[in-house]
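=== RUN LOG ===
request id: a7f3
mode: sequence -> structure
chains: 1
length: 738
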Amino acid sequence: MKSKGIAKRLFAIIICLSVLLSLTVPAYAETADNNEDTLIVGVPTDRCPIFYIDNETNEITGIGADLMFTAAQEAGYKVVFQQISEPSLKEALDSDKYDVLMPFGSAIDSASGKATIVSENLIQTPFTLVTEGKRELPPFGSLKVGMLQSQRGIAESINNIYPGMVIVTFETMDDCVKALRANEVDALLHNSFVWSYVLQKPAYSDLIVQPSTMFTMDFRVGTTNTPEGAAIISRLNTGIAQISDTRRQAVTLDYTSRRLYKYDFYDFIYSYWLIILLAFLLFLAIIIIAVEKIKVMKKRHNEDIQNLITHDPLTGILSMDGFRKRVEELLRENPKIPYFLSYNNIRDFKFINDRFGRSEGDELLKFWAQISKESLKENEAIGRITADRFAVLRNIISDEDMRSDEINVINPVRNYFIDRGKENPVNLCSGIYVLTPNDHKNIDVDHMLDMALIAEKRVRKNHDNNFAFYNPEQWEKGKRMADIIYSLPSAIESGDIQVYYQPQINYETKEIIGAEALSRWNHKKLGVISPSEFIPILEDTGLVFDLDKYVWETVCRDLSALNEKGIHIAFSINVSRLDIREDRNIPELFSNLIKKYNISPDQLHIEITESAYVEDTEELINTTNKLREYGFKVEMDDFGSGYSSLNMLKEVSVDRIKLDLNFLTSSGNEKKSETILSCVIQMIRELEIELITEGVETAEQADFLQSKGANAMQGYYFYKPMPIEDFEKLKEGTPDND
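=== RESULT ===
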């Protein structure tokens, strides 16, 4: 009995001790872990078998990783490897993401110039050159070699050893190989361990290791030279000292004897490309017919579905949704075309349905839709809004086209029942809204329809006409605008647009020193159109470049003719802010023109308005600088008409400034105007920029400018713009007496 009691007590004591141990041992282990410092080590992962990511564990491993792990463990560190995200070690040194980095051949400076400190050598790593096939290499000191960008730190150490070696870095190994094959470099340089891995790639089978060029580099750990960095390196050195040569050899042999290279899809393609190509072509031939049939069926199915959504099932024209989308597309695709939108319905359509039956009413709608659709162009649209309400988007057309529509559409609809033996005319009501420039920029189809509907209701209410405009003044403006836009090509071709020249003089000597080229348009239908009208329209529609090119070519041709007659003079030509875009090389265009017509660049003075610089400063300044490099004179036109004149003088380099006298004297206060002019002239003189004043209309203005030393002038007081023939006579001293 006594022995049984002792046994029970011993069993209880053992249980208690087990519980205590289970509680204290993990706590102790956790304390031990906490006492072990964690070291974040940044490494590149593109250098198998030195450093790479294991496909199975997804962890960084390799010769360098194993040796670093051993050294850190001996030094009491827990190592966490982290892939370097920076281009090279030099940039990574400036990051605070890593405690230390690997590998270093020697101490280098960071990208920002910080000094570094490196550890003792972990292992001697052999480096060797690889060439395309067998080739004789020049001495190391005069070699041009390619390396990876991530090796820039090692490249710096190599340059310290071989100062004459030129090292070019590339982002990837494929880029290195391309450069080698293109003879951009003599050879590629890398760690021999890495070559043993990389050269297993089938596509690199023509690359050969040059064993005679082998040399060794240290393999060290490094960080920035700070007290903290020095402490880490010092501590790591104690661990590195514990690694035996046998351990180093074992780790190296372990990784270099593994078949680490994994053949990927591209390697397979490279090795068996011919067989794969034949198989692919055979497979492709089999599958293409089936795929095409599926595509055709799918396309038809989608079109049927889309057609149900966007088209009216009765008439076949666009539905309300389809019309809205189509109008938005057309306005975006054709910002230069003036459009109008009409809202149309049949007066008393309910009476037609009641009298002739719904089916006859439907046939009328289909007839109306069909003949309307046939009269439209590709960039126009028609849709059925509801019941007998149709909406049409059309280009603004001439009166002749309107009469054509009346003959081909309105009259046949009006006589639909009469032509079928029933005395019942069909009356259409149409409300027309002419689109404004804002409608092209901020497209709101429902708003346009509402405006047209207001006009249509006016027609139904008054019974005195078949159509009405919501904005008739815009209609007339749009027709005139359309005439200008559509007739520009023929006007250039026929010579309706002519280049006139307004002479520029030196008021002191009365000598003609140049002229400004200006366009004049005598329209066959509209008569003489002022440049102040047609140039803004062409700018808004993006056609001003066509006009300007014609003017520039004409000016160069006229200058060439004058040169042949011994008259050497400069003409000023205008460049619109819209002419200068990234996809147009204006300086090169002018350079080609002067070569074509054999004139010198100083004969072209290129005027760019001051306001243009404000709207697109960077592009215009770049263009101005390039023009001056070609030898052209650049003028800032209309100086003083904007609010940033002084700032532009600081930003832009120009050869001459053209003062806008009309603007500067338009206040009506003569004293203030003279004061402003005097200050501006003095300022421009001190900036050593040439000056010409335009808009001179009186002798008093000319005398005042001369008194201030501003002798170059242009204006109606001297001469109006004139054809080239009159300018030539004037220059020769025989002006016409008109």
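=== NOTES ===
The longest strand covers residues 511-523.
The domain at 311-470 is CATH 3.30.70.270 (Alpha-Beta Plaits).
=== END ===
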